[in-house]
Design goal:
Layout: H1 2-26, H2 31-44, H3 49-62, H4 65-78, H5 82-97, H6 103-116, H7 121-133, H8 137-150, H9 154-170, H10 174-187, H11 192-204, H12 208-224, H13 228-243, H14 249-262, H15 267-279, H16 283-294
Length: 296
């Protein structure tokens, strides 16, 4: 009975403190006094979720982020509902990564989110960002593989595979990355991200014939879907490859002529044709290109 009376006294005291804290903030605009009263509640009952939530809110507005993370730890320990715990862990990890800029503890915080919610894409995004920043590329590769494993749609799976190929290239395994991208394109020939990445890697490797073939596929794809701007951009890229590293002036001329056939006033291609014909000694065609250019 005596213990029950003590417990009732504690409960009553906490409720009086809670009401005083509410009034201090709302009626008196005295946030510091409200915070001090909430601290008293937490000292009396360290698992008081409402007091912890309110104090976290106040400490955030005060920019006291170390206090925020400590309070959130206590709040997590006091919470049994899994979805609420995950939400609290996200808040804590975000505070560590953002305002406190503590990458090491932020990584631990986001890993704790994944321990409770293994498919949390927000935590995966954050960890990818932090692993990249901290140059923890082995961990990053494992995480991107996890993203691939949990992907729910074909589009998500392919996006994860493109990310993995990019990372594999950064880790110095370019041939493997190119193979992965080619496998992706065998399944999804129109995938823009895979096409862009493969084009970049082929150029870095100076595999210009393969790059020209890829550009040719993109031109055909753009034509099939009625994308005239994409078709023109591809033809221009093909012409630059033919004229430059491939040393194929006739191929460059052919690409520019296709552009001009579709857009007779395309001054860039007309100028390129005049130059290419003159360099090839085809002076009649060079003059003709200049005349067509003068008409526009």
């Amino acid at each position: 009975s005596a213990w029950a009376d003590v417990e009732l006294d504690t409960v009553a005291k906490i409720e009086r403190l809670r009401e005083a804290a509410r009034l201090a903030e709302s009626a008196l605009s005295d946030v510091d006094r409200a915070a001090a009263l909430l601290v008293q509640i937490i000292e009396a009952d360290g698992a008081d979720a409402d007091a912890l939530d309110e104090l976290v809110r106040i400490r955030k507005t005060q920019g006291r982020w170390n206090d925020v993370t400590t309070l959130l730890e206590r709040r997590i320990d006091a919470e049994s509902e899994p979805t609420v715990r995950v939400s609290l862990r996200r808040q804590r990890a975000a505070a560590l990564e953002g305002p406190l800029k503590d990458a090491h503890r932020a990584i631990e915080g986001w890993q704790a989110v994944l321990d409770e919610a293994p498919t949390d894409l927000g935590a995966i995004d954050a960890l990818e960002r932090l692993y990249d920043k901290e140059k923890r590329f082995g961990d990053l590769e494992e995480l991107v593989q996890r993203r691939l494993d949990i992907a729910e749609t074909p589009a998500d799976r392919i996006a994860a595979r493109v990310r993995l190929a990019r990372l594999v290239d950064r880790l110095g395994r370019r041939a493997e990355a190119i193979d992965q991208l080619n496998e992706i394109l065998a399944e999804d020939p129109e995938n823009g991200d895979a096409l862009d990445e493969l084009g970049t890697l082929l150029e870095k490797e100076k595999r210009y014939e393969d790059l020209a073939e890829l550009v040719g596929r993109r031109i055909e794809s753009a034509a099939n879907r009625g994308d005239h701007a994409g078709q023109t951009a591809g033809l221009r890229r093909l012409a630059a490859l033919r004229e430059g590293p491939l040393g194929d002036a006739p191929g460059a001329i052919e690409a520019h002529e296709i552009i001009v056939e579709r857009a007779p006033a395309d001054l860039e291609s007309l100028s390129a044709l005049a130059h290419l014909y003159e360099a090839a000694g085809s002076f009649d065609e060079a003059v003709g290109a200049q005349e067509r250019r003068a008409q526009h």
